[in-house]
User: Fold this.
Amino acid sequence: MPLPAGARLGPYDIVFPLGAGGMGEVYRARDARLNRDVAIKVLAEAFASDAERLARFEREAPSWDRHRRRSG
Assistant:
């Protein structure tokens, strides 16, 4: 289920959804700690108890930050 605008997820305030894929949803959010806009990917609930998919999600996370630095 998509997160509504204004929802709080840890230090992130959800602004709006950017898209969805096979493993989850991506949102534009505001990082309250850094006071800047970020994109966050949220793993679909259906995969939260799937150890293999969770491990894949965690392995991919560092590449998202590297991509951000190259493209922006």
